[in-house]
Amino acid sequence: MWRLDTATGVWTQISPIPSSSTDDYSGCSGLTIDRQNPSTIMVTTQVSWWPGVIIFRSTDRGATWSRI
Questions:
Q1: Which of these, 43, 48, 52, 63, could form a disulfide with 25 (CB 3.0-4.6 Å)?
Q2: What digits encode the pLDDT tens for the residues 14-53?
Q3: Domain total of the chain
Q4: Quick one: DSSP state of residue 28?
Q5: How far is it, in rounded angstroms, from Cα 9 to Cα 62?
Q6: Which residue from 14, 4, 18 is spatially nearest to 42, judged by alpha carbons?
């Protein structure tokens, strides 16, 4: 996932899955942004070989993530 800073035109990678991850079979399956507080983002991720979903939450526009 990427975030665009519209003031500078700079894109920043904000994925909760590190780009250094060796798991090529994972990805994001859902994304929501809190309308009342746009700094809060929630993402669901999936791994193709695992039957579950992992939910991550950020309260700082994707700079840091917590697994919930």
A1: 48
A2: 888 766 555 555 677 789 999 999 999 999 887 666 667 8
A3: 1
A4: E
A5: 17
A6: 14
| Model pLDDT, residue 1 | 82
CA 43/CA 41 separation, integer angstroms: 7
Instruction: Measure Cα distances from 21 to 36, 48, 63 in Å.
Output: 32, 15, 17
Secondary structure of residue 66 in the 3-state scheme = strand
CB neighbours of 19 closer than 8 A, spacing ≥ 6?
13
| C-beta atoms surrounding 37 within 10 Å | 9
C-beta of residue 16 within 8 angstroms of C-beta of residue 45: yes
Q: Are 59 and 40 in contact (CB under 8 A)?
A: yes
